[in-house]
Amino acid sequence: MPNEHRPEAVDVLASSPVRTGGRLAIWRSLSGKKRWSYFIDHFLVSIITIITICCLLIWLTLHIMNPTTGPRLFVALVDHPIGSEQAGEMNKQAAIALHMKADDNSGLVVDDGFDCSRDGLPKLQTMLSAGTVDVIIAPKSTFTRLTSYGYMTDLSRLFPDKQFGEQVLLPGPADDNQDDKAGSSIGKSPIRPYGLMCDSVQNQRWRPHQNKESGKHGLAKAKSASTDQAVIGLAVNSPHMQEAVRFTKFACGR
Questions:
Q1: In which residue ranges of the chain is pLDDT below 50?
Q2: What is the 3-state secondary structure (H, E, C) of the chain?
Q3: Does pTM top 0.70 for this prediction?
Q4: Rounded CA gap, 42 and 29, in Å?
């Protein structure tokens, strides 16, 4: 640039809106489409980034302050050891007796949606792998199958005597882990008490508020959806073993 034009250029830069007010001043000085176009080019991306960061920080704060804990106890009713109505009643009564909430978020859940003739077994296997099942109640034939798969806990230490019900002695999983052939593992592993006979589940002796009137209406001896006697046991990787033991005692009428 020639020397004679330099003072003029300095004066123009000194009086420029960029020097006096920056981009915001330039945006204010524009009008109509030029203002909108300038806003999109210089402000929109920054504003969206700031809003996104603020939303993320708010979500993280709320997640840390109010974490999703999941149920304190999950009971799986497999192959309908009792009817759906009785399952709902058990959920309510057990929640009262164990001082829990009867909800999915932080309390007790009794789920009767495990039908092995449909998709109940894959559903149960998925939840067991995730460690979200605590108690399993099933007809003895189904319970024997689940035990052979290695899904049940040895109760010899948790219930060393028979005061909570007749122990169900069954062989555990085979060493070859042939999950698809329950019969192949029978007789190949030690026989241990993996469950308790729980006729009180089917005739509803677990009801803490049972009275004579309920017996007149057929509630005390409601029929199970299964003709096979119910067996109760604890999932092998239950994250809430103490609560599971308490529920087992409740279900067995103790």
A1: 10, 13-14, 17-20, 177-187, 207-225
A2: CCHHHHHHHHHHHHCCHHHHCHHHHHHHHCCHHHHHHHHHHHCHHHHHHHHHHHHHHHHHHHHHHCCCCCCCEEEEEECCCCCHHHHHHHHHHHHHHCCCCCCCCCCEEEEEEECCCCCHHHHHHHHHHCCCCCEEEEEHHHHHHHHHCCCECCCCCCCCCCCCCCEEEEECCCCCCCCCCHHHHCCCCCEEEEEEECHHHHHCCCCCCCCHHHHHCCCCCCCCCCCCCEEEEEECCCCCHHHHHHHHHHHCCC
A3: no
A4: 15
Name the CA dihedral angle for 81, 85, 90, 96, rounded to a multiple of 10 degrees: 170
143-198 residue pLDDT tens: 999 999 999 999 988 887 766 778 888 888 875 544 444 444 444 678 889 998 87
Residues forming beta bridges with residue 74, ordered by sequence position: 109
Rg (CA), the chain: 33
Which residue type is seen at 79?
D
| Residue 182 one-letter amino acid | A
Per-residue tokens: 11: 């004066």
Strand order through the sheet with 73-78: 108-114, 73-78, 135-139, 230-234, 191-197, 167-171
CB 150 within 8 A of CB 185: no
CA dihedral 153, 239, 177, 159 (to 10 degrees): 0
